[in-house]
C-alpha cells in the first residue's frame, strides 16, 4: 500500500514536475515569442525609420547629384571661360603687341613730323623772305612794265600803221610760203603716184622720180632705131607714165616739162655719143607721137641727148651698160608761186612808196 502510495506519490510528483516544466517551457516560449514580436516590432519601427532615413538620404543624394551636376556645369563653364580667357588673353597680348608697334610707329612719325615741322618752319621763313623780295621785285617790275607800256603806247601811236602793214605782209608771205611748200610736197606725191602705177616694171628713183630704161633693151649697139620687140613694153610703160601725171588735174597743172633724155657710155667721142643720144631720144619721142594723140603732150614733151656727161658709176668706176639708158623725167613749175611772191613784193613796194 505504502509502496503503491509511494508510487502514486511519485507519479504525481512527476506530473507536477512535468507540468511545471511544460509551464516553464511555455513561459520561455512565450517570452521568446514576445521577444521575437518585440524584436519584430522594434525591427519594423527601426526599418521604417531606416527606410525613412534611406528615403531622406536618397532625396539628399538626388539633390546632391543635381547640385553636383550644376557644379559640374559651373566648373565646365569656368573651364570654358578660362579657355576663352586664355584665348582672349592671347588676343589681348597680340593687340597689345600691335598697339606697342603702332605706338612706336607713331613715335617715329611724331619725330619725323617734328623734323618736318622744323624744316617747314625754316623753309617757311625762307619763303616769306623770298615772297617779300619777290613782292619788292613785282613792284619794281610793275613800275618798269608801266614805263614799257607807256613806251609801247608811244610807239603804237607813232608806228601803228607800219606794224599793221608788216603784219599783213607777214600773213601774205606765210600764205605764199605755204603754197611753195605745197609745190615741194607735190613732187613726192607725183613720185608716189608713179611708183604705185608702174610698180616693178621699171626703175624709178625714189628721190627724183626719174624713170630709167636700159638702151640695151630699146636699141642695138650704135643704133637709134627702136627694136620692134621693145615697142609694146615701151608703149605700156609710157602710157602708164602719162596717165599717172596728166590724168591727175592737181598734178598736171603744176607740171612744167616731161623730158625724154638719152644717155650713152664713154665708148667713142663725146660728139658722136651726143648725136647718138639725141637721135635715140628723138626716136622715142617720135614713137610716142605715133600712137598718143593727146595734144597736151605738145606742151610738155621735149627730147634731148646728154652723151656721156652723166655716167652711172659703180664702186667708183663707170658702169657701161647702166650708162646706156633712156631717162624719162618731169619738172614741176613754181611759176605761179613765184608770180604770187613777185606780186606780193610789188604790192609792198607800192605801199611803202606811197607812205
Automatic annotation (TrEMBL):
It comes from Campylobacter showae CC57C. SUPFAM superfamilies: OmpA-like (SSF103088). Keywords: Coiled coil, Membrane, Transmembrane, Transmembrane helix. One of its GO terms (cellular component) is membrane. The keyword Cytoplasm does not apply. Residues 206-334 form the OmpA-like domain. The chain crosses the membrane at residues 21-42. Residues 47-144 form a coiled coil. PANTHER family: LIPOPROTEIN YIAD-RELATED, STATOR ELEMENT OF FLAGELLAR MOTOR COMPLEX. This is Chemotaxis protein MotB. Gene3D superfamilies: 1.10.287.1490, OmpA-like domain. The keyword Lipid biosynthesis does not apply.
Amino acid at each position: 500500500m505504502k509502496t503503491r502510495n509511494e508510487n502514486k506519490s511519485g507519479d504525481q510528483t512527476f506530473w507536477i514536475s512535468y507540468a511545471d516544466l511544460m509551464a516553464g517551457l511555455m513561459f520561455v516560449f512565450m517570452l521568446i515569442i514576445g521577444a521575437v514580436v518585440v524584436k519584430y516590432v522594434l525591427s519594423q519601427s527601426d526599418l521604417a525609420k531606416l527606410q525613412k532615413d534611406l528615403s531622406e538620404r536618397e532625396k539628399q543624394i538626388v539633390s546632391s547629384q543635381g547640385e553636383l551636376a550644376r557644379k559640374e556645369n559651373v566648373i565646365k563653364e569656368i573651364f570654358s571661360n578660362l579657355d576663352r580667357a586664355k584665348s582672349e588673353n592671347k588676343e589681348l597680348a597680340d593687340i597689345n603687341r600691335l598697339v606697342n608697334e603702332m605706338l612706336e610707329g607713331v613715335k617715329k612719325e611724331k619725330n619725323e613730323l617734328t623734323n618736318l615741322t622744323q624744316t617747314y618752319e625754316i623753309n617757311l621763313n625762307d619763303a616769306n623772305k623770298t615772297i617779300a623780295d619777290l613782292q619788292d621785285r613785282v613792284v619794281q617790275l610793275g613800275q618798269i612794265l608801266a614805263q614799257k607800256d607807256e613806251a609801247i603806247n608811244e610807239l603804237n601811236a607813232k608806228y601803228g600803221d607800219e606794224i599793221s602793214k608788216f603784219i599783213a605782209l607777214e600773213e601774205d608771205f606765210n600764205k605764199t610760203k605755204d603754197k611753195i611748200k605745197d609745190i615741194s610736197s607735190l613732187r613726192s606725191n607725183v613720185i608716189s603716184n608713179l611708183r604705185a602705177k608702174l610698180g616693178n616694171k621699171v626703175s624709178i628713183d625714189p628721190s627724183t622720180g626719174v624713170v630709167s630704161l636700159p638702151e640695151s633693151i630699146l636699141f642695138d649697139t650704135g643704133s637709134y632705131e627702136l627694136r620692134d620687140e621693145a615697142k609694146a613694153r615701151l608703149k605700156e610703160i609710157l602710157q602708164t607714165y602719162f596717165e599717172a601725171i596728166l590724168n591727175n588735174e592737181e598734178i598736171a597743172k603744176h607740171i612744167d616739162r616731161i623730158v625724154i633724155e638719152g644717155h650713152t657710155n664713154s665708148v667713142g667721142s663725146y660728139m658722136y655719143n651726143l648725136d647718138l643720144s639725141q637721135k635715140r631720144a628723138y626716136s622715142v619721142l617720135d614713137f610716142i607721137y605715133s600712137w598718143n594723140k593727146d595734144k597736151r603732150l605738145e606742151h610738155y614733151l621735149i627730147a634731148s641727148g646728154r652723151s656721156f656727161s652723166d655716167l652711172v658709176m659703180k664702186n667708183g668706176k663707170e658702169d657701161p651698160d647702166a650708162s646706156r639708158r633712156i631717162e624719162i623725167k618731169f619738172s614741176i613749175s613754181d611759176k605761179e608761186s613765184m608770180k604770187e611772191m613777185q606780186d606780193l613784193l610789188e604790192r609792198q613796194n607800192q605801199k611803202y612808196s606811197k607812205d
